[in-house]
Automatic annotation (TrEMBL):
Protein name as it appears in the record: ABC transporter ATP-binding protein
Keyword Transport (UniProt): yes
Superkingdom of the organism of origin: Bacteria
Residue ranges of domain ABC transporter in the record: 7-255
Source organism: Paracoccus sediminis
GO molecular function: ATP binding; ATP hydrolysis activity
Gene Ontology cellular component list: plasma membrane
Amino acid sequence: MSGDHVLVCDGVVRRFGGVVALKNVSVAVRRGEIFGLVGPNGSGKTTLVNAVTGFYPPQEGRITLDGTQINGLKPFRIASMGVARTFQNVALFHGMSVLDNILMGRHIFMKPNPLASLLYPWWAQKEEVAHRRHVEEVIDLLQLAPARDEHVDVIPLGLQKRVELARALCAEPRLLVLDEPMAGMNQEEKEYMVRFILDAQEALDLTVLIIEHHMDVVTALCDRVLVLNNGQEIAQGPAREAIADPRVVEAYIGK
Ligand code: ADP
C-alpha cells in the first residue's frame, strides 16, 4: 500500500484457544487522520490494538508501520519505532508528579551517553533544551501547567487521562493509539478531551488510532472508522456513514 498509510493491517487473524478474536481483519490508517475502532463489547477492538502494539501478535496476516513489517516484534521495539499508546485503565507511575509522568514519555529519546556528555557538554545541553521544549509544548497544548507539580494519585480521573495522553504525545509518535480515552469520564470531561485530542492532532500533525464507543465522540473525532462485530468487519468508511450502516445498528441493538 502507498506511503500515505502509516499503519496497514492485512488479513489479521488472532485466536485465543477456541475463540477467534480477529477474523481476517484489514485496515489502513492514513497519515494525519483520526481512525476509529468501533464495535460492541467483545468484538475484537482491544485485540486489534494489542496486535498492532505487539502485546498479542497475530497468528496470521501482516501489520506494517510506514511500510516496515512490525508483527512479530516485541512491544518495546514497536514503541521505539514510534507507536505510543494509552490504556483503557489509566497506567501512570504512582507516587510521581504530573510533570515526572509526562517526562517519562521522552525516555525513548534518552540514550545515556556519559562520554559524549563529558566531551561535548554543549551537545548534551542542546539535547536537554530540545526535550524540555517539546514537553512544555505538550503541557501547554493540554493545559496541564496548573497541575504540573501535583501527585498523579490525587488528581481526578479526567486529568489523569490527560496526563497519560501528554506522556504519549511526548514520545512524538508516528502513530498514537488511544484505548477508550473517555472511559469513566463525565460529559464535561469528555467534551474537553475531544477538544484536546483535536487540538493536539492539528498542532502536532498526529495520526491516531482510537478505540471509542461513545458515538457522539466518534462522530466528533474520527475521519473514518472500522466497525467490528464478533471479530469481523461489518462496516468501514467515513465515520457518520459507517455507524449508520444497518448492520452496525443491528449489531448494537442485538447486544
Ligand atoms: P473489545 O475490545 O471489542 O471489547 P476484545 O478484543 O477485548 O473485545 O475481545 C475479543 C474476544 O477475544 C472476546 O471474546 C475476548 O474474550 C477474547 N479475548 C481477548 N483477549 C483475550 C485473552 N487474553 N485471552 C483469552 N481471550 C481473549
